[in-house]
Amino acid sequence: MSDPRATNPPKLIGPATMPAGVWVLGFVSMLMDISSEMIHSLLPLFLVGTLGVSVLAVGIIEGLAEATALISKVFSGALSDYLGKRKGLALLGYSMGALTKPVFAMASGVGAVVAARFIDRVGKGIRGAPRDALLADITHPSIRGAAFGLRQSLDTVGAFAGPLLATGLMLAWANDFRAVFWVAVIPGVLAVLLLLVGIREPEHDRPRGAVNPIRREALARIGRRYWWVVGVGAVFTLARFSEAFLVLRASQLGVQVAWVPLVMVAMNLVYAASAYPFGKLSDTVSHGKLLAAGLVVLIGSDLVLASASSWVGLGLGVALWGVHMGMTQGLLAAMVADTAPEDLRGTAYGFFNLLSGVALLASSVIAGLLWDAMGSAFTFYAGAGFAALTLLGMALRPAPERHPVPS
Questions:
Q1: Cβ contact 195:90 at 8 Å
Q2: pLDDT band at 352, cuts 50/70/90?
């Protein structure tokens, strides 16, 4: 489709004028992220220190878990287009995430942790594409970047509140991992309840099954600009490996176990503070230029983290990582919505996350191998190299095109 901003000039709209559904989806994401990050900020140390697995195994587990989430989005996204409904799939995915949280607290071996991570991430995959498509459905194109930025900002508030709460509880309870994991059950359940009662899905004119998103004719309507976004997003993901490696880098630099979750607190605090302003900015400036700027910031973060020898270098690198996330994650989601046909939006988010999932699996495994074989610094240098490669791909962006809606 043509850029909707060209015919609908953006207005300076703040968070208070957003549709209520954007706020509800944001708070649902925030609660689930509090629950998830309380566990995920401690899980690498729990696996290595308590269960005795290797750093490479952590990389494989994290890569498989996150890739599973992203790969499964393609199926739920396509199904939401076919059904013409998105809320039910989102509710199923959030419920799966909430129900797996007690398993981490009860796990006595790596098998239970892997199973819980797998099911939890399947739930994330099921909810992700329908939720993003639902958010795009309820927002006007002129404020879409701001809407995605606001949801991402609230999501990220949970992402730093979770590790912060985990840190406090670890200090209070003498590094009792399992007790912290039990507390994480509560916000997960609250997220499911809020989604259940707080969202009303907009009505669509098309009946159930009006669009079969896996048919060749439907996929042919998704044009080159969309696939360019998919390709850039996949290479970008190679540069942005699992954030578990930020936690491990902090531990390597001598940070005490109880304080390690503050790394995720700092990164997500910067991420939350920057996501909405950059999302709002994306409604008025070139998407390509803003994405390129985010890649430059990521390169800077990788180089700083590779050479860090103290808290100062670690903190600067982590802060830059948070800025690049704020600049790019909501932006990529808005770019998918802008370049895909409206009735195939769930499928479009699904394919975007499928390729990103494959790339994330590869990047996490590569990062673990490089860490074990050549040291942590080389891992971050490799990330900077992939980010530079993505910058080169920015020059190949195709011209705008229109997407006809079938009669």
A1: yes
A2: confident
Per DSSP, the residues of 167-183 read HHHHHHTTS-HHHHHHH
Domain-embedded: residue 11: no
Q: What is the dihedral of CA 331, 332, 338, 339, to 10 degrees?
A: 150
Place of tokens 């009669």: 407
The residue ranking higher by pLDDT, 374 or 392, is 374
* Residue 288 to residue 400: CA distance in whole angstroms: 13
Q: Are 341 and 405 in contact (CB under 8 A)?
A: yes
Supply 201's token pair: 């899905």
Write out the DSSP string of 190-254: HHHHHHHHH--PPP-SSPTTS--TTSHHHHHTS-HHHHHHHHHHHHHHHHS--THHHHHHHHHTT
Which runs of E-coded beta strand occur in 32-82?
Answer: none
DSSP annotation string for 101-165: HHHHHH--SHHHHHHHHHHHHHHHHHHHHHHHHHHHHTS-GGGHHHHHHHHHHHHHHHHHHHHHH
Asked if residue 72 belongs to a domain, the reply is yes
- In this structure, the chain runs to a length of 407
Which residue has better confidence, 226 or 4?
Answer: 226
d(CA 353, CA 147): 19
Contact 59, 52 (CB under 8 A): no
Query: Using CB atoms within 10 A of its CB, is residue 277 exposed (0-12), middle (13-18) or buried (19+)?
Result: middle
- Confirm whether 210 is domain-assigned: no
**Is residue 199 helix, strand or coil?**
coil
Task: Report DSSP state, residue 3.
Answer: -
pLDDT for position 186: 94
Q: H or E element: which one contains 362?
A: helix 345-374
CB 47 within 8 A of CB 57: yes
Joined together, the tokens standing for residue 303 give: 């180089």
Lowest-pLDDT choice from 3-7, 79-83, 148-152 = 3-7
Which domain range does residue 184 map to?
Answer: 19-200+221-396
pLDDT 10s digits, 188-204? 999 999 999 888 877 66
Q: Which position has the token pair 């998407």?
A: 287
CATH code of the domain containing 116: 1.20.1250.20
Number of domains in the chain: 1
4, part of any domain: no
* Distance of alpha carbon 108 from alpha carbon 104, whole angstroms: 9
Distance between CA atoms of residues 41 and 62, nearest Å: 12
